Amino acid sequence: MSVSHSSSYAVRNIQHYSLPIPAGLGAFTVALPAIAGLAVVNSMNSSRRRHKLDRNTSQSPRRLQVFLFLLIVYETVIATLAGTHITPASNLRCGLDDKWHSLFHNRDVDRIRRIQDQFRCCGLHSVYDMAWPFQDKTHVKSPCAESFDRQQSCFPAWRAEEQKVAGLLLLVSILVFLWQTAVVASPLPEPSWLDRILRSGRSRQDAESGQGPRRALEYQSNPERYSDSLITEEGGDTPVEVHRPQVTTANSEYITAPPPLVVD
């Protein structure tokens, strides 16, 4: 059973058996794995880009560390609140008593009957203590025990269910914390051979389409291309033929480089 399924199962039992566990605690526990997953993914991506960050963006890892710290506080609060519904067992009586009194006062037949049918019991602390069917003019005491042939109250089994569900919530917070710590602390994996092939293919496509990095000045790959220009040497009237090699810019515009020498 996965962590998400465990938390969902716990929330379902809180509602189904009317346990005195806050619904908000169950909801925050269900959301915990997803929030932790997003935090870990962002942490790994930030670690991969960390060597590329300059001084202007050096605050990003710090903000991520603050977020991870707040997530640990979040997990600690869930674990602490869940633990209060596990032990000590003697402290659980007040919450269970208040919950049952509320159900009985509101004549919530469906919920009381669901608890009694699930644990095959009658009443809270005895088979006649606020049990369903309720007493009426013909029944001074609840006829639950005689009608369903049950001899035990619901308090022990109901309390055990509360401890089990709270234990699941505590387990979820612990497992998420351990997984998060292991992933963040582990070294980054090396790129696989498939990743390297895909990256090289994308680089080749970018170069062919002209979208890749280009140099500002490139010499022509054809060494036979040249230009003949006639210049006149100072102090003379005869034109001298000089070969000036041509170069091309990134926009394929030809320019003439300065002559390396002048031939008499």
UniProtKB/TrEMBL annotation:
GO terms for cellular component: membrane. The chain crosses the membrane at residues 20-43, 64-83. Keywords: Membrane, Transmembrane, Transmembrane helix. Residues 202-241 are annotated as: Disordered. InterPro entries: Tetraspanin_EC2_sf. It comes from the Eukaryota. This is Tetraspanin Tsp3.
